[in-house]
Design brief:
The protein is globular and about 45 Å long. The chain has nine helices and nine strands. Helix 7 crosses helix 8. It is an alpha/beta fold and 287 residues long. It has a nine-stranded mixed β-sheet, sandwiched between helices. Bound molecules: 2-acetamido-2-deoxy-beta-D-glucopyranose. 2-acetamido-2-deoxy-beta-D-glucopyranose (NAG) binds next to helix 7 and helix 8. 2-acetamido-2-deoxy-beta-D-glucopyranose binds next to helix 7 and helix 8. This is Alpha/beta-hydrolase. Keywords: Signal.
């Protein structure tokens, strides 16, 4: 698909121009200092059954706690699997298995099909060994920038419970409707403020979703990727928003839902431009 490739190239260029996502790379094996603020301290590992991807999960999990799955496309479609490690550890520490579609230190070009491969793998290992608690019926897909476009590319996979678009959107306006016009699963847009090159494209995509699709959009420049200064999702505002998204959509936590349905907390955390549709149609059995 040359057009998709072109759009990836454009985001890659944009990211390179902003020097985002490149600060913690250089082939250095990252330390696993942060373990997340949730109840289950988490770290990352790899699995020979899932080559070229990085797996974040709780170090220990009570037998009765299920682990839904979050599958993530890396920024630039080439960042390492640990470039945004703190963000993924935070999610995992709240009881999720997070699969990131590049190796811990790899800077190789990723493909959208790796998100599908990750879901296949999770489906296969769920229920046994160290993955005994994994719940393969609750899988989210998402990604940052170019990785968000990869999530779009596989959006029709019926296994997704929800889609998370983080600082991403179709740069080519003529491709917005073709790409998002048939998305039916609840989709959440987390954009990075007016300095984020994905701000306008992501907002346009949101507007082109089917009117019946549950969706939420907000934008925040506090250290969010593509804006601010860090670009690796370490700001509390983005970590907290993503955790609430996962707690609601994948664990059925209705307390977490209020972050999006009342917006008081989100607004206090600096989210602006908030809009939503059909959130009342999101019904998740709590686990
Ligand atoms: C539900 O979400 C809220 C808000 O994030 C959190 O404080 C609470 O611990 C969660 N409950 C469970 C059972 O995970």
């Amino acid at each position: 698909m040359p057009l998709l490739h072109l759009r990836k190239m454009m985001y890659t260029t944009v990211i390179a121009a902003l020097c985002l996502g490149a600060t913690t790379q250089a082939g250095i094996v990252p330390r696993q200092a942060a373990s997340g603020s949730g109840p289950y301290p988490a770290s990352y590992s790899t699995d020979t059954g899932l080559a070229g991807q990085t797996i974040f999960m709780p170090n220990a999990i009570p037998a009765d706690v299920k682990l839904p799955v979050i599958i993530w496309g890396v920024g630039g479609c080439s960042d390492s699997g640990t470039n945004t490690a703190e963000f993924h550890q935070e999610l995992a520490s709240h009881g999720f298995l997070v699969i990131v579609n590049n190796g811990p230190t790899a800077r190789t070009q990723t493909v959208a099909a790796s998100l599908t491969t990750a879901a296949d793998w999770a489906g296969k290992v769920a229920g046994s060994g160290k993955y005994a608690n994994v719940d393969k019926s609750r899988i989210a897909v998402g990604g940052w920038s170019c990785g968000g476009l990869q999530a779009y590319a596989v959006a029709s996979d019926p296994r997704w419970v929800t889609i998370g678009i983080f600082s991403s959107g179709q740069l080519d306006a003529t491709q917005s409707v073709p790409v998002v016009g048939k998305i039916t699963k609840p989709i959440f847009y987390f954009l990075g403020g007016s300095g984020d090159p994905a701000q306008a494209p992501g907002t346009r995509d949101y507007g082109n979703l089917p009117k019946t699709t549950p969706a939420w959009i907000g934008t925040n420049n506090k250290g969010h990727a593509h804006a601010g200064t860090t670009g690796t999702f370490t700001a509390p505002s983005i970590k907290t928003a993503a955790v609430h998204w996962a707690q609601w959509l994948l664990r059925g936590n209705t307390t977490a839902a209020t972050y999006f349905t009342s917006n008081a907390e989100a607004t206090q955390a600096g989210w602006t431009g908030i809009s939503s549709q059909n959130l009342d149609k999101i019904i998740v059995t709590p686990i």
